[in-house]
Each structure stands twice: as structure tokens, then as C-alpha cells.
Amino acid sequence: MIRTEEIQDYSQVEQLLKSAFKSEAEPRLVERIRSSVIFIPELSIVSETDGHITGHIMLSIAEVIDDDQSYRVACLAPLAVEPTLQRKGIGGALIREALNRCQQFNIPLVFLIGHPSYYPQFGFVKAGHYGFQLKQFEVPEEVFMVYEIEAGALNRLKGEFRYSDAFLDLE
Ligand SMILES: CC(C)(COP(=O)(O)OP(=O)(O)OC[C@H]1O[C@@H](n2cnc3c(N)ncnc32)[C@H](O)[C@@H]1OP(=O)(O)O)[C@@H](O)C(=O)NCCC(=O)NCCS
């Protein structure tokens, strides 16, 4: 079952993030997002099997800056599936549900830094090809990707993609 995360799921989601990423950074990121203005509760989504949380995805608000203009967009992070249940389609189901929900929040584009062999199957393309830059993190260009929610947004918008402060200095 795929559903919106609720407050009583927080501790299970924390355990899931720790076991999927083997790091404290992602649980910290999720906590920071939840207590920030960039948080959209309906875009924090879990998969549940027999009362147990098996996957989690979070999208939050970010911006694209083009000269003196700022556009509201979203970023996808983190995404995690219980290690013993990976490669069964749970990650994909969470991504599709989250992208579907974006339409109701007037989000034109969703950005992420992620595995370049994983996200393109869901329609993500290289953001650099469409005139978007990322300056906050130094990453290979193929891991910086974007998904078009609003038709035409990829060609209409360009500029520097910026994560909110919640994403900075996580280590
Ligand atoms: C990445 C992750 C969320 C994928 O979730 P999942 O439920 O295993 O993914 P799905 O079953 O929906 O994957 C669908 C297809 O994507 C591919 N795939 C899955 N994981 C992949 C990975 N890590 N890299 C590349 N391709 C991957 C496979 O081809 C899979 O199809 P197949 O099983 O027929 O081969 C999960 O592996 C995970 O939690 N990893 C640890 C945390 C992490 O790295 N998160 C993402 C940060 S960018």
C-alpha cells in the first residue's frame, strides 16, 4: 500500500533510512525538511506491507534562479526501500505516485541528484541539457536530473537550481 506518511510513521521511516543508506545524513535531512517551510506533507509518501514501512520518498520545495527571477520547483530526496525488499518495484511505485501528486501543487519540474542508471526509466533527463546549473554541490553532470511535470516547462524555464538550506552541511 502506498500512502501519505503520518507522524506515527516517523520512527519507522528513520530506521528505514538508516538501514538503506547506512548513514545518519538522510534521517537528519528528513527531520530538517519536516520542520521547514519547504515541507509538503502530501509529498512525503510511504509504502506499507502488513503494517510495516518498507519504502519512503520525499519531495520538497526548491527554486530555480534565472537572473532576478525565482521559480518554485521541487526536489526529490531521499528515496529509500528496505534492503531486503529492493528490486521488487517499490521504489518505482513511490516515484510514480510522488510525481503524479506534484500536479496538484503547481510544481513544474522535479530535480534530483541520483543514480543515472535508475531515474531515466521514470522519465528523468539530464538537467544540464536543458540549461540548468547546479552550483551548491560538485557532482558529475549525469547525476543531476530533472523531470517535467508541467508540459513545456523544460523549455520555458532555465537557470540555477538551488536546494534549500536544509540540504546543506548534512555530514
Ligand atoms: C534506489 C532504490 C530506492 C531503488 O528502489 P527499488 O524498489 O529497489 O527499485 P525498483 O524495484 O523500483 O527498480 C526498478 C528497476 O530499477 C533498476 N534498479 C534498481 N535499483 C537500482 C540501482 N540502485 N541502480 C540502478 N538501477 C537500479 C532495476 O533495473 C530494477 O528493475 P529490475 O529489478 O527488473 O532489474 C533502492 O535500491 C534503495 O533504497 N537504495 C539505497 C538508497 C538509495 O541509494 N537511494 C537512492 C538515492 S539516489
How would you explain this protein's 3D organization?
One of its GO terms (molecular function) is acyltransferase activity, transferring groups other than amino-acyl groups. Residues 1-150 form the N-acetyltransferase domain. Keywords: Transferase. The chain starts with a strand and ends in a 9-residue tail after the last strand. The longest helix is centred in the middle third of the chain and has 13 residues, at 90-102. Helix content is 23%, strand content 36%. It has a single domain (2-167), classed as 3-Layer(aba) Sandwich (Aminopeptidase). It has helices spanning 10-21, 25-34, 90-102, 153-156, and strands spanning 2-4, 39-49, 52-66, 69-81, 109-113, 125-126, 132-134, 144-148, 159-162. The chain is globular. Strands 1, 2, 3, 4, 5, 6, 7, 8 and 9 form a nine-stranded mixed beta sheet that branches. With 171 residues, it is an alpha+beta fold. Residues 20-21, 79-81, 86-92, 114-115, 117-118 line the site of coenzyme A (COA).
User: What's the level 1 CATH class?
Assistant: Alpha Beta
pLDDT averaged residue by residue: 97
Domain module tally: 1
Give the ligands present: coenzyme A
Give me the CATH architecture, please: 3-Layer(aba) Sandwich
Report the principal-axis shape.
Answer: globular
How far is it from the N-terminal to the C-terminal residue, by CA? Answer: 32 Å
Low-confidence stretches: none
Topology pattern, helix = H, strand = E: EHHEEEHEEEEHE
CATH names the topology as Aminopeptidase
Computed Rg: 15 Å
Counted beta strands: 9
* Portion in strands: 35-45%
Q: Specify the biggest β-sheet.
A: 9 strands, mixed
- The CATH superfamily is Gcn5-related N-acetyltransferase (GNAT)
- Count of separate DSSP helical elements: 4
Portion in helices = 10-25%
What is the SS-derived class? Answer: alpha+beta
